[in-house]
Amino acid sequence: MKREADALGWPETSGAGPLGDGRFATAVHRPSTVDELCDAVRAEVENSGAVYPQGGASALDYGRPPGRPGAAVDVSSLNRIVDYPHADMTITVQAGMSVAALQGILAEQNQRLLIDVPRPDRATLGGALATGVCGPRRLGLGRPRDSIIGVSFVTSNAVEVKGGGRVVKNVAGYDFPKLLTGSMGTLGIITQATLKVRPLPGASALIWLRADGPERLDEWLVGFGASALRPVAVEFLNPTAARIIAGAAGLAGDSWTLVVGIEDDVNSVAWQVDRFRTEIGRSDFDVLRDEATAPLWKALTEFQVETPGAFACSASLRPSRVAAFLADLPPERWALQAHAGVGVVRMQAIGEWSEDEAAAAVAAKRAQAVGDGGNLIVTRCPTSWKARLRVWGEPRADWALGRAVKAALDPRNVMNPGRFVGEDE
Ligand SMILES: Cc1cc2nc3c(=O)[nH]c(=O)nc-3n(C[C@H](O)[C@H](O)[C@H](O)COP(=O)(O)OP(=O)(O)OC[C@H]3O[C@@H](n4cnc5c(N)ncnc54)[C@H](O)[C@@H]3O)c2cc1C
Prior knowledge:
Blueprint: E1 18-20, E2 23-24, E3 28-29, H1 34-47, E4 51-54, E5 71-74, E6 81-83, E7 90-94, H2 99-108, E8 111-112, H3 125-131, H4 138-141, H5 144-147, E9 148-154, E10 160-164, H6 176-180, E11 189-196, E12 198-199, E13 203-211, H7 217-226, E14 233-237, H8 239-248, E15 256-264, H9 266-280, E16 286-289, H10 294-302, E17 312-316, H11 322-327, E18 334-339, E19 344-349, H12 355-371, E20 375-380, H13 386-389, H14 399-409
Parallel strand pairs: 3-5, 4-5
Antiparallel strand pairs: 1-2, 6-7, 7-11, 8-12, 9-10, 9-11, 13-15, 13-16, 14-15, 14-18, 17-19, 17-20, 18-19
The chain binds flavin-adenine dinucleotide (FAD).
Flavin-adenine dinucleotide (FAD) is lined by residues 52-60, 62, 75, 95, 117-119, 122-124, 126-128, 130-131, 133, 184-185, 189-190, 305, 314, 379-380, 416, 419.
């Protein structure tokens, strides 16, 4: 069906669904087999010349705006388990399965995925891998690129390419699984992935310790690094983030807060909580245990998709620079969650901001992050601010390599044109 379109060819009605940033698709394909998906890509290379992969459509506004009119390819009907040899602790799954469904299947074998994903009922495995999403347990469980060992994806030539394999020891060839992870759907449409999984922990504890400010964070991080403690998460919250996260978890909190997550067998968790008390030299903290930890884990994972104000950023830093980075950001303007153990700071702007104020704040904190060897990306903002705020951060020397890989795999720039780093930068 032909849809009303503006002068650039963008549909003016939402009939084929959103592409993000207020743009609508020219058509939507919902393949339920890889052959159908290849047919859809082949047809769209002819028709519109642009293909926008979609999973749960929970993060379509992430990145730069779509570059030109094109069709959505929704992979959520590719949602089968392909192979689950649970004794080998790997699973091969089609990319459209929701993360919650996958977590449920693994839990039946007392196993789990190694990625914290917000809104798992909606988010798909393919979307989680394409965005490289991570959460509080990245310190202990690693990033998506650390758990993926095999991938299949459909390129703009409408053929399925396979990389990696289904066994952990597999070192031959280019590392396509890691290349596709975090590629934002710009290199191809992920159809299937093989992941390492792990047993569910026997016990879990979350320690909630109020702090006067960020001054002692550095000392604590150094201490944890040198101690026998093995936390899976070390989080540091400013008072505003503590209020949001505590509220979502049914707790009370409105001060700077250190949250330490421990997961292991029952004896190890009990020992580590005792050890934490000794090392930190305080007993005035709360400890949630086992099932009671679930709402707080969820709130710590979902904070990055909260929308309390106009825009949000994510900074990557050396862990030793996190305390200084947080110190000059006023809590009445910012809610801040640091995955302090890995040096990632989630920044939610609070209340009203003009574009000029946002641009000045982003430039200042980005300069600080870049000066410390990191970067700062804008994860959410009005579409009209995106170019000025340069959502993917300060250009880096290795973007040229990324562009060369894109040119080799998608020479006609069919896949998610406009979205990712490097274009027009
Ligand atoms: C910086 C950042 C911002 C986020 N913002 C939000 C947010 O505002 N709201 C929210 O609910 N969650 C957000 N998330 C978390 C999001 O839920 C996860 O990244 C999630 O796993 C996305 O899954 P999805 O299936 O919904 O992906 P979608 O939203 O459908 O797609 C997200 C991106 O991944 C690509 N993609 C999806 N599936 C495939 C595939 N099979 N192959 C190739 N590319 C694919 C899409 O083209 C798109 O660029 C954010 C994550 C990050 C890292």
